[in-house]
Amino acid sequence: xxGAALSWQDQYELFQDLASDDDATxxxxxxxxxxxxxxxxxxxxGSYISEDQRxxxxxxxxxSGTSNQAYRRPENFRSLTELYVTVGTTQYNAELIQDIELxxxxxxxxxxxxxxxxxxxxxxxxxxxxxxxxxxxxxxxIRYRFIEKELTQDDYTTGTITTLANEGTAITGSDSTWTAGxxxxxxxxxxxxxxxxxxxxTSTTSIALQNEYQGTAIAAGSEAYTIxxxxxxxxxxxxxxxxxxxxxxxxxxxxxxxxxxxxxxxKEGIGDALATSADRSSSGVVRSRFGxxxxxxxxxxYFPENMS
Length: 308
Prior knowledge:
Elements: H1 8-19, H2 24-45, E1 51-57, E2 70-72, E3 77-87, E4 90-93, E5 95-96, H3 100-106, E6 120-124, E7 127-131, E8 139-146, E9 160-164, E10 170-174, E11 186-189, E12 196-203, E13 206-209, E14 218-223, E15 225-228, H4 238-252, H5 256-276, E16 285-288, E17 291-294
């Protein structure tokens, strides 16, 4: 599915245009529906999964009173992807236990086992528990799907860009007042049109991009730019969340004809997105005239046996 990425402000301004309504109360309702639409697109299409990685130190970062077994899970935690503890140069992966009765059985011995070689983990409320209980300090790495922040911030366009090299990441601005809160938002030179994620804040006039800028170099220039929040969904689906919002808004307004039209646009767009954007990767999937079948992944660490 083709289409440009839309910032949060782009999305709600498009909603106002399509609904032909700039009433403040209706805009507030529209923003709520757009947020719901973004969440639904992400859940349905599923190719853009919000994942993060954190580390903690076993024993040192243990929750007080848990005998080094429990550690705080990230504040934006949704579900676990992977957890491993690095001892020396070896990573020991912990298998996630999802049955509380099984977890109780594993931990049922009077003297609980202690070892640096963690085998299992369990998510319990706001904590992550490990087994065996770590016996000394090592780095634990947790990869997880996270709950994204709600989109709330309007575009920031104050000042101009004076320095940005082709294939560079450092940006210098003039008359801007950038903040640390802009890390994680997206930046574009308006004349270029490509969005880049902001990775670092240095000062009110100095930030850096996560990926190298591929556009025309700017040196001692005065280019217009935009910093905006962008939903973590495929760029070509950003309009779909707006269609969903207008559909729901039209139903609230009892405008049946408009509601049906935007419901159709939403459903057709989702169908197109599933066909073109739903695969997270082409790896392991073979398409043929008989349909889709999965191709097994071969671990390169497995070697042929019994060969002479």
